[in-house]
Amino acid sequence: MREAAIVSQANPLQRIPGVAIVLGALIVLFGAIAPGFLSPANLSNVLVQSTILTMLALPMTLIIMTEGLDLSMGAVLTLTSLCVAIVSLATKSMLLGLGAGVLVGAAFGTVNGWLVAILGIPPFVATLGTLGMAQGLSLIVSDGQSVVGIPHSVRDIYSATLAGVPVPIVIALVTYAFFHALLYHTRFGSYVFALGGNREALRYAGLSPNKLLIAVYALGGTMAGIAGLLMTARMNSGHPTAGLGLEFDAIAAVAVGGTSFERGNGWLLGTLLGVISVGVLRNGLNLISLPSSVQVASVGVLVIVALFLDGLRSRA
Amino acid sequence: MTDIAKEALSPPRSFLSQDAIQLFYRLLAVLLICAVLAVLNESFLSLGNILNVLRQASLTFFIASGLTLVVLTAGLDLSVGANVALSACIAGTVIHTTGSPVLGILTGLACGGIVGLLNGIMVTALRIPSFIATYGMLWVLNGLTYWYMAGETLHGFPAGFRQIGSGYLFGLPIPVYLLLVFLGIGTLFAQRTIWGQEIYAIGANPVAARLSGIPVTRRLLLVYTVSGTMAGLASIIFLSRLNSAEADIGESLTLPAIAAVLIGGTSLFGGVGTVFGTFIGALILTLVLNGMNLLSVSANWQPLVTGIIVILAVWLDMKTRRRAQ
User: Fold this and answer.
1) What angle do the packed helices B80-98 and B130-149 form, to 10 degrees?
2) Is residue B101 part of a domain?
3) pLDDT the model gives residue A74
4) 3-state secondary structure string, chain B?
């Protein structure tokens, strides 16, 4: 198992074809059939809209590398987005709003990690339970209504540009750089590889796999908190179903990106390309005026195909 | 793995007594919740409310009973709620266009069953982990249903058809009779048939099951198909009870169904649990939600409480099994 991780780290070129072919095929397809798809404005739009998903899919990659899963991410994002909206509305401060969102997100992430690591509850059920909890809390704090009238300082984050580059893209790039450095250039990163591939080795090395696992899930929740700020800024409001199903797009991006669900190896660049693939798919279907329901269904098909191919590869 | 192996090696008789004790605790919980609710709210013990609780519990039970078989094989079906929505919408359309409830019912059951079969194929032939495969299916079905309905609502079904969900027979709601029938069939199938016992064996130790000649793939296909068909049945009851079909009716059904299975003592790790336990689980969950409703707690609290119950149930299950070893 550990060898698989080392091989993929040493030679990521081996894996590029899978996700690159998917992305290339989608771009060629929609370039041919969707009017205006290849215009610079639309392509920039695809990237800006992929920001929130990037912030979820990168930590999801780490979580899946530990043979885990976080189904609660979309619901936690919804809750943190509401927290950002409510707190920034009350205090008129973007930073306090962000702080509240990050705190709530990190708390949920830590609870997820605790349920999985300490209580040993299978990740998909533990996070399904916290999904329900986050969904319920979202309904409770918002009373089922949208939170509107949030300050400009929040909204501007999504529309501002930095040296001509939209701020969301800058945030996504910084996040990617952070995760890349974290996973491939720190000790914590190699521990994450070991969490999926060889947990016993960590124990023999005198480390606590449980604490590391909690940290990985907490990181996921924290990122959902930061993404909550972007979501509130994007919608210019807090909405109790804003992040519904986003965890699934994140899982799709990770699966398409070539991170395996069973072998403890992960590839961040693949996840990034996976995120863009999902973004292109949704944008392209939107341009040829297919309803969002069809987008949802096709992301579902994308995941199943990606996992099937992953299964074929692992048997080969 | 070692847990499963240990479990498989322990003598089967201790299972039964362990199951009996667990069941006793759960019945005690039912009585306790009833007593508390009766004290807190006098309308709880009214005949109308009790029948209401039974009817609600039966809706959860239909979905959860099929799911129980899946969980017994150490799998999970997250697509049941979305399956109910799609089956209800398609069955509703068939009834509207043909005017025949029988045709509609058969279509609903078939639709649910086909979805279940597809889940089974993904899990067996494509070897995708069940929780991911059925989660993908959830979104595929959601997308299909919303696309198919395009924001429309189907209204108004024949009076005879509506009797299935809202009618009474000798003073009891018809869904309660259906509940008793399927409780009986489910229990007999799981405990008294070879196929049922093979399902337990697959959940307890899939490798041993395969080596001892059990056709694992075919049994898994069966289990997922049954789960889908039961979702199809639930869709019919929903359709006739609500007298309308909308794309979003399934969204709040999956978590309660999983909660009912887990509260009922069926282990997520496979091989342990009963259909009767799931019935008790559905009853406990319904009582809690009904109680919240009677005490005028906003319905917004329901997902939060259900989520906590799911986690508590799994944790308790793991704790008792650890102690049993």
Assistant:
1) 30
2) yes
3) 95
4) CHHHHHHHHCCHHHHHHHHHHHHHHHHHHHHHHHHHHHHHCHHHHCHHHHHHHHHHHHHHHHHHHHHHHHHHCCCCCCCHHHHHHHHHHHHHHHHHHHCCHHHHHHHHHHHHHHHHHHHHHHHHCCCCCHHHHHHHHHHHHHHHHHHHHCCCCEECCCHHHHHHHHCEECCEEHHHHHHHHHHHHHHHHHHHCHHHHHHHHHHHCHHHHHHCCCCHHHHHHHHHHHHHHHHHHHHHHHHHHHCEECCCCCCCCHHHHHHHHHHCCCCCCCCCCCHHHHHHHHHHHHHHHHHHHHCCCCHHHHHHHHHHHHHHHHHHHHHHHHHHC
| Average pLDDT for runs of 10 along chain A of length 316 | 44 60 90 90 91 95 92 96 94 92 97 94 91 93 89 86 88 95 92 84 85 95 95 91 89 87 79 94 90 86 81 63
How far is CA A137 from its chain centroid?
21
pLDDT bracket for residue B15 (50, 70, 90)? low
| Structural domain boundaries enclosing A204 | 49-244
Task: Give the nearest chain A residue to B82 (CA atoms).
Answer: A297
Three-class SS of residue A164? Answer: coil
Instruction: Return the residue in A124, A259, A288, A294 with the most chain B beta carbons within 10 A, the one to mutate for interface testing.
Output: A124
Please tell me which of the candidates B133, B136, B307 has its beta carbon nearest to residue A130: B307
Report for A165-169, B64-68, B240-244: range of highest mean pLDDT: B64-68
Asked whether residue A4 is assigned to any structural domain, the reply reads: no
Number of domains in chain B: 1
pLDDT at B7 (0 to 100): 52
Residue B21's domain comprises: 15-33+44-324
Residue A27 domain-assigned (yes or no): no
Cβ partners under 8 Å of residue B269, min gap 6: B3, B4, B74, B203
pLDDT of residue B45: 85
Q: Is B143 part of the contact surface with chain A (CB cutoff 8 Å)? A: yes
Q: Which residues of A touch B308 (CB under 8 A)?
A: 129, 132-133
Q: Is residue A190 part of a domain?
A: yes
CA distance B219 to B174: 31
- A54 lies in some domain: yes
Structural domain contains residue B116: yes
In 3D space, the residue among B105, B95, B103, B88 whose CA is nearest the CA of residue B141 turns out to be B88
Tell me how far apart the alpha carbons of residues B276 and B295 are, in angstroms, rounded to a whole number.
28
**Residue pointed to by tokens 């039966």:** B58
Q: How far apart are CA A28 and CA A33, in angstroms?
A: 9
> Nearest-CA distance from A95 to chain B in Å?
28
Measure in Å the smallest separation between the Cα of B142 and chain A Cα atoms.
7
pTM over 0.95: no
CATH of the domain at B101: 1.10.3470
Q: Which of A278, A211, A263 is nearest to A56 (CA)?
A: A278
CB contact under 8 A, B136 and A262: no
Answer whether A123's CB lies under 8 Å from B280's CB. no
The total domain count for chain A is: 1
